[in-house]
Amino acid sequence: MERMVFTVGLALLIIILVILFFTFIPVGLWITAYFSGVKIGITTLIGMRLRRVIPSRIV
Fold first, then answer.
1. Spatial distance between the Cα atoms of 1 and 38, rounded to a whole number of angstroms
2. pTM of this prediction?
3. How far is CA 29 from CA 7, 16, 19, 21, in A?
4. How far are the Cα atoms of 5, 9, 12, 51, 54 from residue 42, in angstroms, in the given order?
5. How many domains does the chain divide into?
6. Is the residue at 10 inside a domain?
7. Which among 26, 34, 18, 32 has a CA at the least distance from the CA of 50?
8. Exposed, middle or buried: residue 30 (CB in 10 Å: 0-12, 13-18, 19+)?
9. pLDDT digits (tens, 9 = 90+) for 15-44
10. What is the band of 56 on the pLDDT scale with cuts at 50, 70, 90?
11. Is residue 59 part of a domain?
12. Rounded to the nearest 10 degrees, how much is the dihedral formed by the CA atoms of 42, 45, 49, 54?
């Protein structure tokens, strides 16, 4: 029983982390920029988010 609770808790934690990852990091914008030929790194987009710059307006 304890193992099942641990597994369910771990699965929920992973799901929450994935949702937060895709919410905070503009992966879709990075893919669009990459295929458009724009040389911008995912870390640059993360930095823009941290500086409260709207990455979609810049890229």
1. 51
2. 0.58
3. 33, 21, 16, 14
4. 35, 30, 26, 14, 14
5. 1
6. no
7. 26
8. buried
9. 999 998 888 788 888 888 889 998 888 888
10. confident
11. yes
12. -150
